[in-house]
Write a structure and sequence with these properties.
This protein has about 170 residues and is mainly alpha-helical. It contains 2 helices and 4 strands; from the N terminus they run H-E-E-E-E-H. The termini are far apart. This is RUFY4 protein. It comes from Panurus biarmicus (Bearded tit).
């Protein structure tokens, strides 16, 4: 019986020692988990703070964008109003100038080596054209191409013809 008691005491002592080891390991694990929990809470607080900051910045950007959009819409309204004013001015000026006679083409210059409109010399690189309407000789700058059927004509004849057709 004493041996059995000694054996039971030894077994109980061994189990106690193992239980203490397990308890110590569990305490260490619990301390590690509490530390991780603490870090997780700190990370959560940082993320919540970052989220609030991002939301504030987004609201500020939205307010700025709204103000900019309102300013641009006002600018567009102002530009449309100015465009209407300019169109009315153009119409008024057109009505005023409608009765004014357009100048007649100037007579053919005596020197066939000069442009009838700007009196520039015809040279190797400045080509001369005959106006298909008034038959004067004009340079490229003082003429307008009216297409394959009509050829080129001087600016004055083109303006007279263009105002008659509109």
């Amino acid at each position: 019986l004493p041996q059995r008691l000694a054996s039971l005491a030894a077994t109980a002592k061994e189990e106690t020692w193992q239980s203490r080891q397990q308890l110590q390991a569990q305490r260490q694990e619990m301390a590690r988990l509490q530390e991780e929990l603490s870090r997780a809470r700190q990370d959560g607080e940082r993320w919540a703070s970052a989220l609030q900051r991002a939301q504030r910045e987004a609201l500020e950007r939205e307010a700025t964008r709204g103000a900019e959009q309102a300013r641009q819409q006002e600018l567009i309204r102002d530009m449309k109003g100015r465009l209407l004013e300019l169109l009315r001015e153009k119409d008024a000026l057109w009505q005023k100038t409608e009765g004014i006679d357009t100048p007649m083409p100037s007579p053919v210059p005596l020197d066939p080596g000069l442009c009838a409109r700007c009196h520039k010399d015809f040279r190797l690189l400045s080509r001369r054209y005959n106006c298909r309407l008034c038959q004067v000789k004009v340079c490229h700058t003082c003429s307008v191409d009216m297409g394959k059927q009509h050829g080129r004509c001087c600016l004055i004849c083109y303006q007279q013809r263009h105002t008659q057709t509109t």
